[in-house]
Write a structure and sequence with these properties.
Blueprint lengths: L4 E3 L2 E4 L4 E4 L4 E3 L2 H12 L4 E2 L1 H8 L7 H17 L6 E4 L3 E4 L43 E2 L10 E5 L3 E2 L7 H15 L4 E3 L2 H4 L9 H8 L3 E10 L2 E10 L5 E10 L3 H15 L5 E2 L11 H16 L2 H17 L4 H16 L3 H6 L1 H14 L4 H9 L5 H14 L4 H13 L4 H14 L4 H13 L3 H14 L4 H13 L3 H14 L4 H13 L3 H7 L5 H11 L2 H9 L11 H15 L3 H11 L14 H12 L5 H18 L7 H14 L3 H12 L8 H6 L13 H21 L2 H12 L26
Parallel strand pairs: 9-11, 9-12, 10-12
Antiparallel strand pairs: 1-2, 2-3, 3-4, 5-7, 6-7, 8-15, 12-13, 13-14
């Protein structure tokens, strides 16, 4: 498989596991995805069964049907990213057929398809009623069908239903669609797009093919609802996005009391049209009948919670508390209340979030005692278990077994795999599932970009961050990521300008302001950073003090800070700042108190610490034992240093410099000056160096004894040289006007102080020296 395989504007190099486009785009593939794509390319247009794929791609090993489906789903996602969303077709109960475009010499110019009007059912008139019953989630307990019935995945989106009674209780139609979405998503034969993406398409004139391409789905479910007195009229249709044809339609005239059966009928008719069997659990219990007022309050609460503002979340909590009081047997209300309280807490502060478990856990226990099959409840409970990775994993696996289409569950599982279980390969699979299920959620694109960046795939990370911005042009994390990539590539001026532009648009954003403060420090302009840090922001002040070597002031502020104050300062930097004080003061006591109270660190390094946290754990160990480690302390530091040195041998290039810096700190604390300098030399020889490293080295008390050694000056010169050149680039660009605009925009937020100095800042007009 060493020859390249060409299709359309792309070619696959199986040996490298890389797709390259005629436009210069390069996409790195997982080994399994590479083999699967090569297999399909070798059998273009042929039907490949499950067994054939297993024999070719999985070398005949025993793998589950779900493993094959996931592999095909991941490949579909890759091809969709390359502009080929419909190459692979599922043949029910038989296998897959892949059809690829013929190779071309250059990228063809596509002509816009003629707009197709969506086939509409006749406008429904007559008596339609009021409320959708929230208990429909409890109506259908789906049991997995035999494996032969699960070899197909139908990608479906439920669009918001049209409310033919506008004005009064307009949330009813959305609620009806959302509950139908929830029912379908429980079955593993369907992949159902999340509400956050599908509900963006509210126009009745939208072209089904365009909607299908935007959402990456094969079918759309559309509907309308009208109410009158105690009657409902609901119209539903299933549309094939490939050709815009209607596959099935139905009209339901029901009384309010019969609503429990409507969703069941719709779900089963959709499944029948797609030749999927839904099997009802033998022990399924009848959902509790709810009154109109309770239904109305529940649907209104769900709509408010989806809005996400603090005011909306508080209103939703009030409504849900009323429902749980009047109908304590309604499990979805307990689960929704727990989720909404958590969302409202996370919008406020980390300290409150840490203490809210005692409030939320009883709500979840009540929900799951009433209905142990509520997937949302397990996802919410998993969010409370960030210090219990295995418990978090168990809850997420349970949630996804109940609802395979839970996009947020897949995203949270990706975070768990990456951050705590050191399984970036599985993290990538899960976040791709989340992206496929919720393609118009910028957070999912950003999360995969983060994983790509962690693998030093700057091109892939940049593409995904730009995709997040295509969904939401104001999505700040994606802007910050592009700025960070620029900085890692040595383009500090371009990085700074990105942040400046974002901050000009949102001068009240504290996180952005702190990022811009750090950017000024990275460029060696502390005077500009100080002006921007008015009124003072705790984390920005800590960074300024670390930059200038004001360790006593740094320690006073950091050791007195709360979790809220430190929310923008990473664990590594907290450990590094604590280490600076231990060495500067000669007393590790305050650092130990801080590390124990804030991070639960006890001065030992558990053998189970994941590689991703090893660097910060080593520096915490140094802060605990510096400046004069005991024999036991030296042994602990040495073990950690050896492990990190071994792990670094397999690290990608972009991770070497910060880890070499940590090893330099360890060598300095152990009194090995030669080794400390050697590790700093390794840092300077990297092509990718974190932009803050130069000033962290320069002002660290740990390296005070190195400054007179031969070679130290040349280390600093090599670290500082890119900064000087980028300052020149920045000065040469037409930034004064941009800066003036930023200052003017921010004056309303940060007024001019009595001395006439702006407390918001752009580029410092009087360039400061690098060492101030």
């Amino acid at each position: 498989m060493s020859d390249t395989l060409r299709f359309g504007c792309w070619q696959l190099d199986p040996a490298l596991g890389e797709l390259s486009g005629d436009d210069g785009t390069r996409v790195t593939l997982e080994p399994q995805t590479t083999r699967l794509l090569a297999c399909f390319l070798a059998h273009d247009g042929e039907l490949l069964s499950h067994d054939q794929l297993v024999a070719t791609v999985w070398d005949g090993r025993v793998v589950s049907d779900d493993a094959v489906r996931r592999g095909v789903s991941n490949l579909r996602h890759v091809l969709a990213d390359c502009g080929l969303p419909r190459c692979i077709r599922t043949v029910h109960r038989r296998g897959y057929v892949a059809t690829f475009p013929q190779p071309v010499a250059a990228e063809p110019h596509e002509t816009a398809p003629s707009a197709r009007r969506r086939p509409r059912w006749p406008l429904l008139s007559g008596a339609l009623a009021l409320v959708l019953i929230a208990g429909l989630l409890l109506l259908l307990h789906e049991a997995p069908a035999p494996s032969s019935q699960l070899e197909v995945e139908h990608h479906i989106a439920v669009l918001p239903f049209i409310d033919l009674n506008p004005g009064e209780d307009t949330f009813f139609a959305d609620g009806l669609a959302e509950e139908l979405l929830g029912l379908l998503s429980r079955h593993p034969a369907f992949r159902v797009t999340s509400r956050g993406s599908s509900f963006r398409f509210r126009s009745s004139e939208a072209d089904p093919k365009a909607v299908g391409e935007a959402l990456g789905v094969d079918y759309l479910i559309e509907g309308s609802v009208r109410r009158e007195n105690e009657s409902l009229r609901i119209g539903v249709q299933l549309v094939d996005t490939g050709n815009g044809q209607q596959l099935w339609s139905g009209r339901y005239d029901r009384s309010f009391a019969e609503l429990l059966r409507v969703q069941d009928d719709i779900a089963r008719n959709v499944a029948r049209a797609l030749q999927v069997v839904l099997v009802q659990g033998a022990e399924a219990e009848e959902a509790p009948a709810l009154g109109r007022e309770v239904h109305t309050d529940y649907l209104r609460a769900r709509r408010l919670a989806a809005g996400g503002s603090t005011r909306e979340l508080e209103q939703a909590i009030d409504l849900l508390q009323g429902i749980t009081s009047s109908r304590p047997d309604f499990a979805p209300a307990w689960a929704a209340l727990a989720e909404t309280v958590l969302l409202n807490t996370r919008s406020q502060s980390p300290d409150t979030f840490r203490s809210i478990g005692a409030v939320i856990e009883p709500l979840l226990e009540r929900a799951l005692s009433l209905d142990p099959d509520l997937g949302d409840a397990y996802v919410t409970r998993a969010r409370l278990k960030r210090n219990d990775p295995q418990g978090m994993l168990a809850d997420l696996e349970r949630a996804l077994s109940l609802n395979p289409s839970h996009a947020a569950g897949h995203a949270l599982l990706a975070e768990l795999y990456h951050m705590q279980l050191n399984r970036s390969d599985l993290a990538l699979q899960e976040i791709r599932q989340a992206r496929a299920l919720n393609p118009l959620e910028p957070r999912n694109h950003y999360a995969e970009a983060y994983l790509k960046l962690d693998q030093c795939d700057f091109s892939g990370a940049r593409t995904l961050a730009q995709r997040a911005l295509a969904v939401d042009a104001d999505y700040i994390p994606a802007i910050a990521m592009l700025s960070h990539i620029d900085a890692l590539e040595g383009q500090l001026a371009r990085s700074h300008q990105r942040l400046l532009k974002a901050y000009r648009a949102d001068p009240r954003n504290q996180w952005l302001r702190n990022m811009l403060v750090i950017s000024h420090l990275n460029l060696g302009d502390p005077a500009a950073a100080r002006r921007l840090n008015q009124p003072p922001f705790r984390v920005s002040s800590l960074n300024l003090q670390r930059y200038s070597g004001s360790i006593d002031s740094l320690a006073r502020q950091m050791f007195a800070a709360t979790g809220d104050d430190l929310m923008f300062l990473g664990r590594y930097h907290q450990a590094d700042y604590a280490l600076a004080h231990s060495i500067h003061s000669g007393d590790p006591g305050p650092a130990r108190d801080f590390l124990e109270q804030v991070h639960g660190f006890d001065g030992t390094l558990p053998a189970s610490v994941p590689v991703s946290k090893l660097r910060e754990a080593l520096v915490m160990l140094l802060a605990w034992h510096a400046p004069a480690p005991s024999r036991e302390g030296r042994q602990s530091i040495e073990r950690a240093r050896q492990r990190l040195s071994q792990e670094m041998m397999s690290f990608p290039a972009c991770k070497i410099a910060p880890h070499a810096l940590s090893l330099a700190l360890a060598a300095a604390v152990l009194g090995d000056r030669e080794q400390a300098l050697a590790q700093l030399e390794i840092t300077t020889r990297q092509t990718i160096v974190e932009p803050w490293i130069w000033w962290s080295v320069r002002s660290s008390p740990a390296f005070a004894d190195l400054r007179g050694m031969p070679g130290y000056a040349s280390v600093m010169e090599r670290l500082v040289a890119p900064v000087q050149s980028q300052r020149a680039v920045l000065a040469a660009r037409s930034l004064p006007a941009t800066t003036a605009e930023t200052l003017a925009a921010a004056d309303a937020v940060h007024p001019v102080d009595p001395a006439g100095n702006h407390t918001a800042v752009g580029l410092h007009r009087n360039q400061a020296t690098l060492v101030e």
